């Protein structure tokens, strides 16, 4: 409840998002040594030099993709521990998630099954060019930052679809919300953020 209060103080308004965050345990996504900090509004290490996102950022990104109504199919690049995946899986019909570090993907799979979430498709791959075969998507969310938005992600958006993505260098990034209207892409800058870089090429086993 304290975390929920913090999210509301920071401007999260969607009751749907707040309810899902309230009912989703975050501690199961963390190592035991860090699980006592699970309900603080901070990013925490999950191994392999990666982090679990700050709850405020998870809430803000989720709010950005559901604010125009129910979403059917979502693509997520950067599964990490799977916490963001868990939140979206409860608000969309299906989610396709891609992670380049295999042990993280396997751990995420285990945790998401534990929560009984079955509308998730997993892929161990470089997701910087999306997942074309399963597209188009009503929403795409990227939880690692490219320096420029990959055009493949724009192409895999359905009409009216939304892409929420951090863009920039390690020292300066902003969260963008792109909406597709035919061949036009409307871009809005939301907030300053700090994500790990979106790596291209080889995956990690
Ligand atoms: N969504 C997570 C946070 C993920 S951290 C959460 O809910 O907390 C970002 C993740 O993106 C890392 O696990 C990293 O390995 C992954 N990543 C980076 N570049 C990638 C790429 N090209 N394809 C797929 N995953 C990538």
Largest sheet: 7 strands, mixed
Mean pLDDT across all amino acids? 97
Shape designation: globular
Bound molecules: S-adenosyl-L-homocysteine
Which structural category fits the helices and strands? alpha/beta
Number of DSSP E strands? 9
Q: What proportion strand?
A: 25-35%
The helix-strand sequence is HHEEHEHEHEEHEEE
Helix content: 25-40%
Radius of gyration: 16 Å
Strand order of the largest sheet: 5-4-3-6-7-8-9
Number of helices: 6
Low-confidence stretches: none
**How far is the first residue's CA from the last residue's CA?**
38 Å
List the keywords.
alpha/beta; 7-stranded mixed sheet; two-stranded antiparallel sheet; 205 residues; single chain; binds S-adenosyl-L-homocysteine
Tell me what the structure shows.
It is a single chain. With 205 residues, the chain is an alpha/beta fold. The protein is built from six helices and nine strands, in the order ααββαβαβαββαβββ. It has helices at 2-9, 15-23, 55-66, 83-89, 102-114, 151-155; strands at residues 44-47, 50-52, 71-77, 92-99, 120-124, 137-142, 157-168, 173-181, 184-193. The chain is globular. It starts with a helix and ends in a 12-residue tail after the last strand. The model has no long low-confidence stretch (mean pLDDT 97). The structure holds S-adenosyl-L-homocysteine. Residues 50-53, 77-78, 80-81, 83-84, 98-101, 104, 126-128, 143-144, 196, 198-200 line the site of S-adenosyl-L-homocysteine.
């Amino acid at each position: 409840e304290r975390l929920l209060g913090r999210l509301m103080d920071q401007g999260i308004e969607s009751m749907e998002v707040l309810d899902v965050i309230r009912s989703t345990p975050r501690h199961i996504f963390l190592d035991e040594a860090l699980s006592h900090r699970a309900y603080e509004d901070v990013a925490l290490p999950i191994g392999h030099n990666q982090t679990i996102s700050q709850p405020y950022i998870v809430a803000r990104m989720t709010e950005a993709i559901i604010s125009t109504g129910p979403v059917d199919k979502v693509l997520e690049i950067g599964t990490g521990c799977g916490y963001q995946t868990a939140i979206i899986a409860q608000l969309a019909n299906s989610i396709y998630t891609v992670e380049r570090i295999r042990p993280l993907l396997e751990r995420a799979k285990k945790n998401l099954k534990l929560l009984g979430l079955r509308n998730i498709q997993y892929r161990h791959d470089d997701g910087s060019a999306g997942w074309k075969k399963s597209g188009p998507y009503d929403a795409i969310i990227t939880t690692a930052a490219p320096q420029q938005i990959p055009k493949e992600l724009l192409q895999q958006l359905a009409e009216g679809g939304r892409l929420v993505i951090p863009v920039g260098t390690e020292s300066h990034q902003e969260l963008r919300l792109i909406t597709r209207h035919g061949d036009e892409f409307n871009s809005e800058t939301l907030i300053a953020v700090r994500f790990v870089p979106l790596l291209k090429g080889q995956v990690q086993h």
